[in-house]
Predict the structure.
Amino acid sequence: MLISVDADLMKVLADPLRMRIVTLLADETLCTTHLMEETGAKQTNLSNHLRVLREAGVVETEPCGRFTYYRLRPEALEDLAGALGDLAATARAAGAVNRRAC
């Protein structure tokens, strides 16, 4: 059984700052100003990371006047977690029984 894990999404989440952003957005919807205060990152760096997260479907934006708020899309993480869980279950079921002969 072939299980597909989104390697691109895993690469997106592998960056420490992006993972910090995701962790902060899990608790509440925040704007760039809030994220700058929480992470200590510069605005341009933060904006680039938020763009990557948005393009990967991990966050979505909500305009509010002159600010843009960012909200985590939990379903993106749930899909990845489900795929990884399926992969672990397959490995557990196969155990040492499935071994190709050399």
About this structure: The CA atoms of residues 25 and 100 lie 44 Å apart.
